[in-house]
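$ ./design --mode recover --in tokens.txt
reading tokens...
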């Protein structure tokens, strides 16, 4: 079964990152603009220069069109991303969810990521991205060239990957540590979910003791995902989230 042959940590990251593909830009800390364009903005618009546009306001923090474009560029770098075309609408929703989580994570100190932790992950990432082979990302020059062609400097990418790690850690601290999967639940999953799937594929299944840890990881992902979705829904209800339709001024 596909979901049980991947590295468990990769599975956890993929599940948690269904809404967290990339950490956001510093603009999320900015306050929403006041109504009406400034004289400078009006002058630039009159000259035909396209200005960055507000696409959503989340509890006073803004998400810009440039954030959506950055989401698209960063998604292309993800080695574990799902296949399919980029969706602007889904990207905006992910950015909103991420902004809500960042606002909550800012209240806790245990989500901080050290330079060593960041360096260790980036070292692995440079090996995991398939396209990195032709750029020789194992060298600093190759890595910088690869990032540059995706519109990022190395410093920008490090900052965004660090925020990505901090968000994952926040989610794990808040949800995963309180979840306990029993042996009976693992056995039940094995018998009712795994074995029928192996039978359907006409493949000899592994023994329970061989895959029990991976089953536990999958079940953890499912429960974390459910808790995370419910929590985000409550944050949206309790807070103030406004999506600015395309063509409408951000006011």
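writing sequence...
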């Amino acid at each position: 079964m596909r979901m049980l042959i991947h590295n468990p940590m990769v599975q956890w990251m993929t599940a948690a990152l269904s809404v967290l593909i990339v950490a956001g830009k510093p603009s999320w800390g900015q306050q929403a603009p006041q109504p009406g364009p400034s004289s400078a903005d009006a002058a630039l618009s009159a000259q035909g220069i396209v200005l960055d546009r507000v696409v959503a306001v989340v509890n006073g923090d803004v998400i810009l069109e440039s954030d959506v474009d950055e989401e698209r560029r960063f998604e292309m770098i993800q080695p574990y991303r799902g296949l399919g075309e980029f969706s602007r609408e889904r990207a905006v929703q992910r950015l909103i969810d991420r902004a809500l989580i960042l606002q909550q994570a800012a209240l806790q100190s245990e989500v901080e990521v050290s330079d060593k932790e960041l360096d260790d992950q980036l070292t692995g990432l440079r090996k995991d991205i398939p396209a990195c082979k032709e750029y020789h990302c194992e060298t600093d020059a190759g890595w910088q060239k690869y990032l540059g062609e995706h519109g990022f400097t190395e410093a920008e990418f490090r900052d965004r990957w660090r925020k990505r790690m901090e968000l994952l850690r926040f989610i794990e601290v808040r949800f995963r540590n309180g979840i306990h999967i029993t042996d009976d639940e693992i056995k039940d999953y094995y018998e009712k979910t795994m074995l029928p799937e192996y039978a359907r594929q006409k493949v000899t299944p592994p023994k329970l003791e061989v895959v029990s840890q991976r089953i536990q990881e999958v079940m953890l992902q499912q429960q974390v995902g459910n808790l995370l979705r419910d929590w985000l829904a409550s944050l949206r209800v309790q807070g103030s989230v406004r999506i600015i339709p395309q063509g409408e001024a951000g006011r």
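exit 0
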